[in-house]
Specification:
219 residues, mainly alpha, elongated, 9 helices
Length: 219
């Protein structure tokens, strides 16, 4: 739903004749923020749905300890919030870290090598916009390996067009769908292999992880 809202903002700017599209810049920042939130929320939801996944995390070397007093905030259903308490302490800030976390959880790697590089580039673009107002820096040029003339560094700005946003949104959607499908299949396989009897609510919760309505217009 967030992506759909960003899509509408970008669409409204397509006929505007402007050197810099501030809406597209802000929407790209928002896109990356929502994409980062997706990984934490999905990671947490999987643990909430099937808490035994914590054993996988611990055995793969991840920290699973929390402060027991944090559970007091959720008097009625503390286990339903357990995944969020764990995810809040996890660093899922890069493709490599996301892969490591989901590999530990369900033996799933959402990012291949090319996709990981593309996500890193997207993160660098976001960071440039957030921390430097889009002005090219020497560190940015070195990280993204982009051909930028030396006289443009610390002078020219990163331009974000509606097409740039569309491509980034399509990338985020594709990776998110891939992750949802892979984790859904892996969780069902784990449940079946362990002969676990799930409640109707948990079965519905697993099914609901595949819900993803956003389809960007890339025409």
């Amino acid at each position: 739903m967030h992506l759909d809202g960003l899509q509408g903002i970008v669409e409204s700017t397509k006929n505007r004749d402007s050197v810099l599209n501030l809406e597209c810049e802000l929407c790209l920042i928002g896109l990356v923020a929502y994409f980062e939130a997706f990984w934490k929320d999905h990671f947490a939801s999987l643990i909430n749905i099937f808490p035994p996944l914590l054993r996988n995390l611990r055995e793969s070397g991840h920290e699973t300890a929390i402060d027991a007093t944090d559970l007091l905030m959720f008097e009625e259903t503390p286990l339903a919030r357990l995944g969020f308490l764990i995810a809040e302490r996890c660093d899922l800030g890069t493709a490599r870290k996301i892969n490591r976390a989901f590999m530990g959880l369900l033996r799933v790697s959402p990012f291949g090598r090319d996709d990981a590089e593309r996500f890193d580039k997207l993160l660098n673009d976001r960071n440039l916009l957030v921390h430097h107002g889009g002005i090219y820096t020497s560190r940015y040029v070195q990280h993204v390996r982009k051909r930028i003339a030396s006289e443009e560094i610390y002078f020219q700005s990163l331009e974000v067009t509606p097409q740039d946003f569309q491509e980034a949104a399509s990338f985020a959607e594709r990776i998110a769908r891939k992750a949802l499908n892979a984790t859904h299949a892996a969780l069902l396989g784990l449940v079946a292999s362990q002969n676990v009897r799930l409640s109707k609510q948990r079965r519905e919760a697993i099914k609901s992880t595949l819900w993803f309505p956003f389809v960007p217009d890339t025409a």
